[in-house]
Amino acid sequence: MGNGTAGNEALRVAMADKGETVESLAGKVGVDPKTTARWLADGRIPHPRTRIAVANLLGRKAAELWPEPFRRRDLPWFREWAELEQDARSLRSYQPLLVPGLLQTEAYARAVLATGGLLSPTEVDEIVAARLMRQRVLEREVPLQFVAVIDEVVLRRRVGHDPSVMAGQLTHLAALGERECVQVRVIPAENPWHTGLAGPFVLARMPDGAEVAYLDNQLRGQVVTDSADLASLGARWESVTGEALPRRRSIDLIREVATTWT
């Protein structure tokens, strides 16, 4: 394994297995050969999106080649996306079942993670701490532009045993929706089946203008970089936003439903 300080033997071996040289790898991922050489000799760690591209090219996981950034407190399979999220300039998130993680209160996050007893109390504590740290991206000097579309059922389905968890979450959600950098839009419950109900997804715009996406399922998440897949998700995004209420009407609905939890 590369250790980030004395060269990266794991990367060297992976390159040799695929017959890649410093020059060929650099050309395929769009960096200077000197940069690739530093990854090998100095253990330099590339930008998250570059790590993903290199790992995919070499048939390895990014965490195998550069383990240091993955030594975090959230779920191992989520760490790749968590880094991209922090670098993103904008995020567009569709969630049919839950409040997006960046907009969750601590109480709501704990209630979600504790459901089913699949995680130990220590694991819940660690993941909640990581989630709250991620939320700082909304507080940075140049804030992340965040647009969230959720289904109305997210507002009305109880999370946790105490209804005050939902009351607090919806009050928080409405307040965030008033910020210039955050939009929260709700798809009304009476709307018919729509394409978004096939599952949640997030689209991220990176500083260089490139787009990546994240898909979640019952077992783990997946970072998506394929252009055809991104185009398909972009079309789905246009579909779900077409179903959603405007920003102000969405905030009014969130506040109205919040009163039902008190």
Protein described:
It contains 12 helices and 6 strands. The protein has helices at 9-18, 22-29, 33-41, 48-58, 62-65, 79-87, 106-114, 121-134, 153-156, 163-177, 227-243, 247-259, and strands at 90-95, 145-151, 182-187, 201-205, 211-216, 221-224. A 6-stranded mixed beta sheet has the order 3-2-1-4-5-6, sandwiched between helices. A hairpin with a 5-residue loop joins strand 4 and strand 5. Helix 7 (106-114) runs antiparallel to helix 8 and helix 10 runs antiparallel to helix 12 (247-259). Residues 1-5 have low confidence and may be disordered.
The Rg value, from CA coordinates, equals 20 Å
Main sheet: strands, sense, barrel: 6 strands, mixed
Tell the overall outline: elongated
Helix-strand pattern, N to C? HHHHHHEHHEHHEEEEHH
Helix content: 40-55%
Percentage of residues in strands: 5-15%
Quick check: average pLDDT? 87
* Distance separating the two termini: 52 Å
Strand order of the largest sheet: 3-2-1-4-5-6
Uncertain stretches of 5 or more adjacent residues: 1-5
Counting helices, strands and paired strands, the structural category is alpha/beta
DSSP helix count? 12
Q: How many β-strand stretches? A: 6
